[in-house]
Design a protein that fits this description.
Elements: H1 7-30, H2 37-50, E1 54-55, E2 67-71, E3 74-76, E4 91-100, E5 103-112, H3 118-136, H4 144-157, E6 167-168, E7 174-176, E8 183-187, E9 206-209, E10 212-214, E11 220-222, E12 229-231, E13 237-239, E14 242-247, E15 250-253, H5 261-266
Antiparallel strand pairs: 1-4, 2-4, 3-12, 4-5, 6-10, 7-8, 7-9, 9-14, 10-13, 11-12, 14-15
Helix pairs in contact: 1-2, 3-4
Bound molecules: magnesium ion (2 copies).
One magnesium ion is lined by residues 95, 97, 106, 108, 210, 241.
Length: 274
């Protein structure tokens, strides 16, 4: 069942989104060679609780930490550990969620550690850009599948730096969000055969969109820790996510500090009142 939020509830989601956005900024600034993912988790916990919010992930189905940290060929759901230390040239995906007065925000970024190979930089660029294309395609009166199509079309339109093809992960998808982190509807990052158009995009709908793109094949595997999802072929993966809702002017990105205004207006996705 889809939960439609009123203005007050969207306001609480914005507060949660800002906690997530500010926490991710601190984490991005902290990523450097020699830093462990446990160090990052400690920063996240202090940041989230310091703002009077609750980490969404800690205890979620038994997950032991406040963020998911996924390095290189890890796609999502990596568990922070003092033994997982990032090195120059790595890429690390950080996924973060926070709750304010019962309402969730959820966002993720993939960050280069120092200087990374050009193909990894391109993987990050394409994945992040596909997220923004997905959000920019959402408009009141549109359909959920517009988002999925925009993400896939963007990724497929981008030349692969090694002459291969991008792997768009299919097993893990975006979602509705509100009083729970994961709600209906699922937001696919591709358009499957005979996929329904999905619900109409209306006021009060809040979605977390989160493309995961692999430098190699799209196939995934879960490690023995029963959390960490990795690419089957060992190629690197990137993950970007934002939580957003729709206004008359266009998408409002609740987990972006500026609400997404800079990116979306550059893409022509915001209606400015004349
Ligand atoms: Mg997330
Ligand atoms: Mg999510």
């Amino acid at each position: 069942m889809i939960e439609y939020k009123n203005e007050h509830e969207i306001g609480l989601m914005r507060e949660a989104g800002l906690v997530v956005g500010r926490t991710l900024e601190k984490l991005k600034a902290a990523v450097a060679p020699g830093v462990s993912t446990a160090d990052l988790d400690a920063i996240a916990e202090e940041s989230i609780r310091g703002e009077g919010a609750i980490p969404s992930f800690k205890g979620y189905r038994g997950f032991p930490a406040c963020i998911c940290t996924s390095i290189n060929s890890e796609i999502v759901h990596g568990i922070p550990s003092p033994k997982a230390v990032v090195q120059e040239g790595d890429v690390i995906s950080i996924d973060c969620g926070a709750i304010v007065e019962g309402y969730h925000g959820d966002a993720a970024v993939t960050v280069p550690v120092g200087q990374v190979k050009p193909e990894l930089a391109e993987l990050l660029r394409v994945t992040e850009e596909s997220l923004w294309h997905g959000i920019a395609a959402a408009r009141l009166g549109g359909r959920l599948i517009d988002i999925s199509r925009a993400i896939e079309d963007y990724v497929r339109s981008q030349p692969h730096p090694l002459g291969g093809s991008w792997g768009i992960v299919e097993e893990y998808v975006g979602h509705g969000i509100g009083t729970q982190m994961h709600q209906d509807p699922q937001v696919y990052n591709y358009v499957g055969r005979r996929m329904a158009k999905g619900p109409e995009l209306v006021r009060g709908l809040a979605l977390a969109v989160e493309p995961m793109v692999n430098l190699g094949g799209r196939e995934t595997r879960v490690l023995d820790d029963e959390w960490t999802v990795v690419t089957r072929d060992g190629a690197a993966s990137a993950h970007f996510e934002h939580t957003f809702t729709l206004t008359e002017a266009g998408p409002w990105v609740l987990t972006a500090l500026d609400g997404g205004a800079a990116r979306l207006s550059a893409m022509g996705a915001l209606r400015t009142s004349a």
